[in-house]
Amino acid sequence: MNIEITGEDKSLTGQGIDLKALNESQYEAVITTEGPVLVIAGAGSGKTRTLVYRVAHLIEKGIAPESILLLTFTRKSSQEMLWRAGRLLNDTCSRVVGGTFHGVANMLLRRYGAELGFGSAFSIIDRGDAEGIVNLLKSSLGLGKGNKRFPSKRVIINMISGSINKSIDLEDLVYDQYAHLGDHIDDILQLQKHYREFKYNHGLMDYDDLLVNWKRLLEESDQVRTTLSERFSHIMVDEYQDTNLIQADIVRMSAYTHDNVMVVGDDSQSIYSFRGADFFNIMRFPKVFKSTRIIKLEENYRSTQPILSLTNDIIRNAVEKFTKTLFTSIEGDILPKLFTARDEREEARFIVKTIKKLHQQGIDIENIAVLFRSGFHSYKLELELAAEGIDFEKRGGLKLTESAHMKDVLAFLRVLVNPQDNLSWNRILLQLEKVGPKTARKITTFISSASDPFVALTKYPAGKTWRMSFVKLTDLFKELRSGSQNPSVLYEKVQNYYQPVFLQIYADDFPKRQKDLDQLSSIMKGYDELQPFIDDTTLDPPETVSLDAGSVKRLVLSTIHSSKGLEFDAVFIIGVADGRFPHASAAAGEQWEEERRLLYVAATRAKEYLYITYPRQLMTPDRQFKHVGMSPFLSELSAGLYERVGEQFSNDYKMFSRTEPSAINYEPVQRKKKKLNMSDFSQGCKVNHPFFGVGTVVKLSDGRSLDVHFDRHGLKTLHLDYAKLKRL
DNA sequence: GCGTATCGCGTTTTT
DNA sequence: CGCGATACGC
To answer: What distance in Å separates the CA atoms of residue A422 and residue A414, rounded to the nearest whole number?
Structure first.
């Protein structure tokens, strides 16, 4: 369970810990060595630094590195933190157990899984795999055929996953947040049931299962719980606002013998509620861990005052927040800029032009980032950048192992490790010509009833048209199972088999994909065993962009979600238009607030220069122009906190009136999500719910919930922020 | 009934 | 680009 620290910078080691470099509250957080600590920290306040120093400090005080557990959300951040701590202490941190929640869960389950009865024979599936299962099930159950309104596999997985992470019934979740899909509730529940069975029958575990089973491990085995709690005498969690209820329970139980837990988080940066994160975990922390010391880090070490004033103003309008007032002593008086572009193209050109200007002023290209709400918002800009010859790196898109050809090759390795993995079998079989979904399903059911699927496979009566290729496949497995089990050797054999198949399937664009296959082979050289390789590629997939020379400096394009925790000298936030940001389907209430926090996260990435841009018109799919205004989050901002730039702006409006005489015929972007207040309702008034129909308000509860009696569905408690209620 | 080729459409965010 | 629908051919 060791994490290797790589990339050590020799020139900086051996300095010892310089606690003087910390301010008073950071120092307090660091030296607190016993008992629970909650650090509420604003953006750019050096919370990661605090954790790094604490790890180093604990070790310097004599705590064994291997008894420190550092939990983060991305592998990158845990490695970076350990590396930094290692620099302070001449690399004695390499024995600290640092990793992601999911990575640590995997390690523990492989080690202690037998206690729960599933041993260590499981393979991990990613989101795409999960969606694949839903797809298989949908067709085999004959659900949603030709029904456009049937939820997509992605939505279904989000619902299933969401209900687990939020620890509520799927049915309730649908009523609360997916009311418009309520018609399909029975089918959705059926899919959920089959999805569970499929995973269970084939030894598959999705990301949620890893956490759920970690929790079970702690809950159901006193021995394991005690062992683990004693093993890790100090537990630290970064980005605590991103934990869900399960993770909070895990932290609680992992520390039950000592309560030595330090968590760091910022409620204003909670942007993952869609995957179950619940920033109330921060609020609950002092109640769960008695005698918690709460430390606030309020000084910002990243941004200049004008940027901070703007970001404070963004979050000022938030409905729910724990007050923190961020201040900075960083000098700087450059106001954030707002640019209104005529269309996406002009927006892209403005960005390119400004990036060039900044670059001339001496800002390195890798210190500039362009951030956006959704992956495809940057398409126009990508074209423009390519035309100008500016190299960029896009983050938050498809990962290497998420593309079809990668999954194809990995499937062979996956069945070797887990022969029950019917999802991978399915992939392998579908590669055969003349074998489609039906035939593949027949084969998988045939072989999974046998004790040894590989033997059973050779016995399957292959069809005449595809017997030849089928025999090649069985031969491949014979070879794979008899020879060396070294990953590189196995991969080479798989490659020999797959190459011709690959050339045929991806005849039109194989050169690009070929590079990915080669990259996989080089990653594989670092592994002696197959299982860890497969786990790692699933839990922490490499980015699609070839990482050949890590030293190449490039502009960063990133979704806001993927930019969390990073900082740049100059930041552009693009597409901040009504309907695009907040996302069009964000409902009033918590979802709306989360979008606001998202903008906050984006803006707080900037150290010195901040540009916010939006296009005035967007192209709809049918080549119509749609006029849009700025994001409501922008119009809410106080005047004087930003400066408008761009010479054309004042003429824009006139130009539009001329080209489209009907003038402002843009439907005043449907304000459908008008926020409802408790005062809009009273006891006895009639309401309408999209799923439950007409009902009568029985009781107004605390907060924003209502008890409503529905004629057809009985009494339900509804939350104003989730339920799409209408007053009649 | 099954497999394959083709066209056209729409894209949230992710450990 | 990845998908779903559709038509065609075996």
So the answer is: 10
Q: How many angstroms separate the Cα of A481 from the Cα of each of A332, A415, A417, A476, A595?
A: 65, 11, 10, 9, 51
- The string of pLDDT tens digits covering residues A559-588 is 999 898 889 999 999 999 988 888 887 878
Whole-number Å distance between alpha carbons of A661 and A721: 39
State both tokens at A91.
Answer: 């690399």
Q: What pLDDT, on the 0 to 100 scale, is given for residue A235?
A: 95
DSSP state of A20: G
What average pLDDT is seen over chain A? Answer: 82
CA A96/CA A4 separation, integer angstroms? 9
H helix or E strand, kind and range, residue A607? strand A606-619
Of A142-151, A324-333, A520-529, where does mean pLDDT reach its minimum? A142-151
Enumerate the β-bridge partners of residue A614: A340
Nearest residue to A427 (alpha-carbon basis) of A169, A128, A24, A16:
A128
A101 close to A211: Cβ distance less than 8 angstroms: yes
| Element spanning A139, H or E | helix A127-141
Q: What is the pLDDT of residues A207-237, one digit of tens each?
A: 999 999 999 989 988 888 898 899 999 999 9
Residue A465 CA and nucleotide C9 C1' are separated, in Å, by: 15
Q: CB-based contacts of A472: which residues, under 8 Å, 6+ apart?
A: A497
Amino acid at A236: M
- Class of residue A718 by CB neighbours under 10 A (exposed 0-12, middle 13-18, buried 19+): buried
**Is residue A521's pLDDT more than 50?**
yes
Q: Give me the phi and psi of A31, to 5 degrees please.
A: -80, -10
CA/C1' separation A425–B1 (Å) = 23
A171 CA to C3 C1', in Å? 27
Three-class secondary structure of residue A723 per DSSP: coil
Written as six digits, the tokens of A605 are 């990435």
Quick one: average pLDDT of A445-454?
A: 86
Give distance CA A92 / C1' C5 (Å).
60
Query: Alpha carbon of A11 to those of A82, A87, A88, A591: distances in Å?
Result: 17, 9, 11, 47
CA–CA distance, A430 with A436 (Å, rounded to integer): 6
Residue A722 pLDDT > 70:
no
A441 touches strand B (CB under 7 A): no
Handedness of CA A222, A228, A234, A236 (dihedral sign): negative
Reported residue count of chain A is 728
Which pLDDT value is given to residue A545? Answer: 54
Determine whether the distance from the CB of A158 to the nearest atom of strand B is below 7 Å: yes
Q: What pLDDT does A67 receive?
A: 92
Residue A598, nucleotide of least CA–C1' distance: B13
Q: Which residue has the higher pLDDT, A24 or A263?
A: A263
User: Is A178's CB less than 7 Å from nucleic acid strand B?
Assistant: no
CB-based contacts of A120, cutoff 8 Å, min separation 6? A109, A110, A111, A113, A114
Q: Which residues touch strand C (CB under 7 A)?
A: A 131, 135, 145-148, 152-153, 398, 403-404, 509, 512
CA A639 / C1′ B1 distance in Å: 68
Strand C positions closer than 7 A to protein CB = 1-6
CA atom of A146 to C1′ atom of C6, Å: 12
Give me the residue label for tokens 């995957």. Answer: A275
Q: Which nucleotides of chain B are near protein (any atom < 7 Å from a CB)?
A: 1-4, 9-15
Q: How far is residue A713's CA from residue A717's CA, in Å, rounded to a whole number?
A: 12
Which residue shows structure tokens 């991978």? A424
Q: In Å, what is the separation between the CA of A559 and the C1' of B10?
A: 19
